[in-house]
Structure to design on (71 residues):
């Protein structure tokens, strides 16, 4: 299985009301709070005209079958 690129980790202090709002938003979008914060940051940067490369997403689903010898 291929490794995804490392993400930068850092502590983030939030107002409890802001955290609760992000938590509700994440739940409605079926995301983790961390994924929701990242999504909101990307949307905010896009509105400001900051261009980012698309994130590398892990492949989902069953891996392709290995070809057998003799085929």
């Amino acid at each position: 299985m291929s490794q995804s690129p490392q993400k930068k980790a850092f502590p983030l202090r939030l107002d409890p009301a802001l955290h609760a709002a992000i938590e509700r938003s994440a739940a409605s979008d079926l995301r983790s709070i961390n994924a929701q914060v990242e999504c909101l940051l990307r949307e905010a940067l896009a509105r400001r005209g900051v261009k980012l490369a698309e994130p590398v997403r892990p492949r989902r689903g069953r891996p392709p079958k290995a070809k057998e010898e003799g085929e």
About this structure: The chain has a mean pLDDT of 87. The two ends are 24 Å apart (CA to CA). The helical segments are 16-28, 33-47.
